Amino acid sequence: MAAREAGRDPQSVTLIAVTKTFPAVDTVALARLGVTAVGESRDQQAKLKFQELQPHGIPLEWHFIGQIQRNKITSILRYSDVVHSVDREQLVLPLAQAAAARGRPLEVLVQVNLDPANYSDARAGVSPAELFRLADLVAARPELSLRGLMTVAPQSVPAAATFEQLSGLAERIRSTHPGALWLSAGMSSDLEVAVRYGATHVRIGGAILGNRPRLG
Ligand SMILES: *Cc1c(COP(=O)(O)O)cnc(C)c1O
Question: How far away, in angstroms, is 131 Cα from ligand 1 center?
Fold first, then answer.
């Protein structure tokens, strides 16, 4: 619906159901309802859920959207098809090595921090100034496929301003990396705005699954 309102083809926006903190049965239910992609942010929970779902043989795309700890990379790559949260140079080599070891390239989004009040908060992504170098490093690795950018809109700025800035950065990235066509933007509270500014992937938790149990 958000896509139609923005004059876009609904097929051009992928819904990622953010299933973090919800049990595996919910993921099964969503898959039966036609959800094709799920998002998880904690390796410990995600890997157990993935194992629990294995016997069901449900074809799902797994997107890792949480902060990446280097010592978890091998584990994360056992189940992840796409990683949205590459936010620093130190992750590039270990991700490439783990992708090589599993024998399947990894699709990567670079997470960019668009909170002007807080560019130094590395957990929120790479700063716009450092984005281009990080994207180049990812794209230089044959085991990694640079698919685009991801952001989490900060509270301090209207979402429209954030997503407009993201869209401008994405355009510049595409001038050197034409395959980087994805924009992962939009959560329950701002998905319509994100779609208006070109999001290709929205990450929706609460609006599908209801209130989340607090992250432990
Ligand atoms: C939890 C989470 C979401 C989903 O948020 P909702 O507000 O529940 O839709 C999206 N993106 C990231 C990175 C998250 O951690």
Answer: 22
